[in-house]
Specification:
With 234 residues, this protein is α/β, with parallel strands linked by helices. It has one domain (4-227): Alanine racemase (TIM Barrel, Alpha-Beta Barrel), CATH 3.20.20. The chain is built from nine helices and eight strands. The protein has an eight-stranded parallel β-sheet with strand order 7-6-5-4-3-2-1-8. It is globular and about 45 Å long. Bound molecules: pyridoxal-5'-phosphate. Residues 34, 36, 57, 83, 167, 205-207, 221-225 line the site of pyridoxal-5'-phosphate. Pyridoxal-5'-phosphate binds next to strand 8 and helix 9.
């Protein structure tokens, strides 16, 4: 089995290759290491290999991990990104403990995060999650809702609107993977044309990273390819 450090190197190489193929600069693409279901030890190992940003889906698990890291490695200051579904009674803890939230899909949640962001912290970086492939079961604002939502969120003082995020349906071949990512990029371009300053496209996971980079991803969220398969029994 390969180590987290080796996996991080392999992912970094794959990012460079995908960027070059797309005629893009590799440094335009940031790697978010999705550490859900893995412990503080895995975060420490990844940080020793130079990784700084970590994504978490489940609030309680993330808070426990942060507390453990604070005990065993208080010198480490990871940048935490919340990427999971948000219930409104969880917004205060998210506003207090994270630097980024990628999964805002309605104004009420954004308003609470803004109100609850501690004033000694910089504004919370926000991506709006978009339900780009249109399945009823998933979270995310519809593409039609996004322009008005973006206008409103951009005005909230505790937040900084950074861009859009999507989790498309799994697809086998790269052409099929690229279609929803292209839609997300075009939606971001439409927002910019309306004067909304955003710089982030959070898209691409272990199985579809190259397709996302080909369509303009600026942040890829990678779990399995770095930490290995998740075991939800733990
Ligand atoms: C789990 C998760 C990821 C990472 O997925 P992998 O396939 O393990 O790379 C990325 N984004 C979100 C929102 C996730 O929930």
């Amino acid at each position: 089995m390969s180590s987290i450090a080796e996996n991080l190197q392999a992912v970094a190489r794959a990012i460079v290759a995908a960027a070059r193929n797309a005629g893009r600069e590799p440094r335009e693409i940031r790697l978010l290491a999705v550490s859900k279901t893995f412990g503080a030890d895995a975060v420490i190992e990844a940080m020793a290999a130079g990784q700084t940003a970590f994504g978490e889906n489940y609030l309680q698990e993330a808070l426990d991990k942060m507390a453990e890291l604070g005990r065993i490695a208080p010198e480490l200051q990871p940048e935490w990104h919340f990427i999971g579904p948000i219930q409104s009674n969880k917004t205060r803890l998210i506003a207090e403990h994270f630097a980024w939230v990628h999964s805002v899909d309605r104004f009420k949640i954004a308003q609470r995060l803004s109100d609850q962001r501690p004033s000694h912290l910089p504004p919370l970086n926000i991506c709006l999650q978009v339900n780009i492939s249109g399945e009823a079961s998933k979270s995310g604002a519809t593409p039609e809702e996004v322009p008005a939502l973006a206008q409103q969120v951009a005005l909230l003082p505790g937040l900084k609107l950074r861009g859009l995020m999507a989790i498309p349906e799994p697809a086998e071949d790269e052409a099929a993977q690229r279609a929803p990512f292209r839609q997300l990029r075009e939606l971001a371009e439409a927002l910019r044309a309306q004067g909304i300053a955003i710089d982030t496209l959070s898209m691409g996971m272990s199985a579809d990273m190259a397709a996302a980079i080909a369509e303009g991803a600026t942040m890829v969220r990678i779990g399995t390819a770095i930490f290995g398969k998740r075991d939800y029994a733990n």
